Amino acid sequence: MDSAVPYLMARGDGTAAGQILGVVTGLADAVDWLYGHWYLLALAIAVCWGAGEQVVRRLAAKASAERMALELVPGRHFDPSLEEIFRRGVQLARASTAMPWWAPRRAKTVQIRLRADGSTPLRYRIEGPAGAQRLLSITPFGPDVAVSPARPIADKPREHTVRAEFILRGKLVAPLREVPLEPDPLQPLVDAVSDLRAELGDLAEIRLDIQRAPKWALRARRLQLMGAARRAERREAQRSARWLRQDASGVEDSLTWQLQQLLGSRSGGIGSGRRLVMPPVPRRVDPAEALGKLADDDHLVRVQLLVMCASNIEGRAQARLAQLQAAFDVFGGQARWAMRGWRLGPWRIGADHWPTRGAFERRWLLGHCQPPRANWVRLDELVGLLKPPTVHCRVPLLAGDLPTFEFGDPALLLQGIYRTPDGRSRLVATHAAETLFEVGVGKAGGGKTERALAQAIGWAHAGGGLMFLDPHGDSWPRAVPFLAHDHLMERIALVDLNAHGPTARLSSWNPIGMHQGQVAHEVVESTADACAAALGWDDATAPRALAILTAALTVLVAVNEAACRAGRPKDQATIFQVRAMLTDDSFRNAALAAVENRLDEETRSWWDTTFPALPADAYGVVLNPIARLAANPVTRAFLGQPDGVYNIRTSMDERMIVWVCPGGNGPTDRLLTALLARDLLRAVRSRRDTAPDRRVPFRAYFDELITLTGAAPETIASMFEDFRKYKCQVHGMTQLLSRLPGPVRQSLLQNASTLASTAGSRSAIAPITAEWGDTPGPDVVATLKRFDHYMSLTVDGRRIGPAQITGPHLDDVFAGIARPHQAASLERTARATAQTAPLAQLTAQATAQHGRVEAFLTELAPAKANSGVKPPVSLQKKKEYS
C-alpha cells in the first residue's frame, strides 16, 4: 500500500487514492460502530417491519371487507364426476386472484366453509372476492346444486371454544391419499358432527382457504428442497463411506485375515499388503423424486386449514375437535394432516395459546390466508373438499330436520323413534299441516298398524278428529286402553259390524237417508257409484243396470226428502226398497205419484217411456246384490233403519273419533265397504260449502288397503287425489303394494307425503325402494327387525330420508296414558254415542220398514190427488201393460 501511494502521486492520482482510502476507512468505522450498537440496528429493522406489517394488515382488511358469500345446497341425487370436481377447483383457484392490484397476498384467497350447528348436518359455503361472484355462481355441477347468496352468520358466544390449525406432516412432497368418491370423502366429517346438539350450544366449523401459489415462493421452495435433497445424499454417501471403512478395518484386524496375509507373503502371491477402500460417490439427485408434487406448476395451490369447535358444556368442544382430527386422518398417506403446535406431557400448545392465538383469530375473522410453507397441494388432492355432500353421503337426521314429537301438540304428527348416532333416542314427528297422505308397506306383524294406532291416538289426544277403518276389528281393543280418558269418551263412536249372536248390538246407517241434510243428487250418485265400483259396472259393461239403479234411487231419495220435510224421518225408504220400486207396481206407482213434482222432466220421462219397455230379466243384475245385503242379518239391520245414526260429515266437523269395522271380505262385505267409502268421498267433497280456513282437519286411517280397494278401487284413488283440498288426510296400510289396483297405487305413490316400509319379501318392497332410487335397496329393507321402518317424510316442503326409524309401540310410548280399568266404560260410551241397539230389534225394524214407507206413500198420494196434481203417465201405462 505504501509503495503504491508514491506511484499514484507520481501519476497525479493522489486525490482519487485519498478518496478511496477514506471510503474504506469510513465503512470500517461504520461496521465497527454497528457492531458495538447492534441493538439500534435490530430496533430499526423491527420498526420498519412493524410499520410495514401494519400497512399490509390495513390493506388486507380493506380488501377483505369487500367479499361475497355463496351457499351451495346439493340435490338428493347429486353425484358429480372427478372432472366436474376438478373444474370446480380450477374455478376456486382462479377466483382467488380476483382482487385489486394493491391487495396483499394474504387477502387473495377463496374460502370453503363447512359448518355444523345443529340446524343442518353440514352447511357448505364459499367465500371469496366480490369480483369473483359471477365466476363462482355458475358451477360445473349444473342444476344438481342450488347456488344462492349466503347471509352473514352471527354466532352467539359459547362458554368453551377450542381452535386448531392443521398443517401437512410426513413426506411433504408426497400427495395426500387418493380418497374415492364412493363413499363420499366428506362422510368422516359428517360422522364427526352427527351427534352435535344445538340445545347444548355445540358448533363445529372447518375453513379451507385456497390460494394460488406465487412463482417466486414456488421457486424458493424448490431450491430449498433440492438443496436439502443434495445435503441428504451427501450425508448418506459419507455415512456409507464411514461404515465401509469400519468394515474394512474390522476385517484387517481379524485373525483369519492376518493368517491369509502371512501365507500370502511367504508365497509371494497376490493379496499381500493392505486393502484399497474406494468411498462411494454421492448419487445424482433426481428432481422429480426430490420435488415430488412440486415438480410441475400445473394446478398447484397453497392451503390453510383452520378448525374451531365450541359448546356450552365443558369437554364437548375438545371431544368434537378430536373427532374431526380423526376424520382428517382418512386423507393421510405419506403426507397427512396434523394439528400445528407442540405437546408437553398432558398439555398442548397450539392455536388456543399465545403467541399464535392472535394470528389465528385475525385470520379466522378476516378470512386471511397465511399458510405454513409446507401446505402445498395439488387440486386433485382436495377433490373430497371441493364439493358439497353427494348422494353417497349418509346424512344423519338432526332436530332441525325432523321435529321432536310433543304429546298433545296438534301441529305435530307422531312418526316413530329415531336413534341418533350417539345412541340417544327421541320421538320424531312431521308437521300435521303438510302430512297429507301416508303409505305403509310391509309384512303382517311388522308394525304398520301399531304405528298407525300410535299416530291416531296421539292425534286424538291433541284434539283432532279421525276415522279408523279396520275390516277385521283387531285395532279397536288394542287402542281402547289409551283412549279411555274422560275428555275423549264423548267424542268416540264405534261402528262394529263384526257383531253376531243374541247379544250383538249395532249402530245404523241409511245410505239414502235425507234426515242429515244431505244433497239429493250427491246421495244418489254416491250410492250408485258405490254399487258400480263393488260390482264392476261401468257405462260400457252394464249401462242398463246403472240406469235402472240410478232411476230407482232418485225416486226413493225424493220420497225420503218429502218424509223429512213432513217431519217424519222414520218413514224414509232404505236401500232395500229398491226391490219394491222395481217389482211392486203399487209401491212404484204410489212413489211416483207422491214425488212427481220433485222429479225433473228427464226422470219422469224415463219412468214413463223407458221403464215399461224393459224386459223382466233386466232387474236381476240390480236386485241380486241388494238381495245379498238383505239376506245377511247384520247388513240388513245396519242398512235397514230409516233414520240411521252414522254421519261421517258431522263427525268431521265435530272432531269425532270414529272406529268402523266393516267385517269380512266377501262379496256382501265388499259392497258394504264400497258404500261406506263412497259416502266418505261424498262427505269430504261436500265440505266445499265451508270456507277453506274453517274446514276442520280430519284424518282417515285405512288398514288392509287390499281389502278396501278390492271393494272400491276408483273411490280410494279419488281420495288420494282430492282430499287434500278439503283438509282430509288419508293414511293407508297394505302388505303388498303390487296387489293394489293400478289407479290406487299410482295415486298413492304420486301424492304420498310419507312412504314407509317394514321388513318383507324383496319383491314386495321393491316398488317402495324404487321410489327412493334403491337407496337403501330392497335387500337392506327386507332384513329389518320387527317394528323398524325405512321411511321418507316431508318436512318444510322438502323430503327427508329415507331414514331408519323404529315404529312406536303403544305399551312403551304411551304407557303413561294407558287406562285399562276404564276400557269397559269407554266401550259402553262409544256404543252409546253410535246409538247401538240389539241386533234382533234392528232386524225387526228393518223388516217392518217397508210397511211404514207404503203407509206414508198412501197418505201422501191422496194428498197429491186432492191438490189437483195429475197422476203420472207411468201409472196409466202400467195399467195398460197389466
Sum this structure up briefly.
The chain is an alpha+beta fold.
pLDDT averaged residue by residue: 85
Give the termini distance in whole angstroms.
Answer: 162 Å
Helix segment tally: 32
Number of strands: 24
Which residue ranges are poorly predicted, with pLDDT under 50 across at least 5 consecutive positions?
1-12, 267-272, 865-882
Q: Residue share in helices?
A: 40-55%
- Mass-distribution shape: elongated
Provide the structure class: alpha+beta
- Rg on CA atoms, Å: 45 Å
The proportion of strand residues reads 15-25%
For the largest beta-sheet, the strand count, sense and barrel status come to: 9 strands, antiparallel
Would you give an account of this structure?
The protein is α+β, with helices and mostly antiparallel strands. The chain is 44% helix and 17% strand. The N terminus and C terminus are likely disordered. The protein starts with a helix and ends with a helix. 41% of the residues are buried. The protein has 32 helices and 24 strands. Helix 2 crosses helix 3, helix 15 runs antiparallel to helix 16 and helix 23 runs parallel beside helix 25.
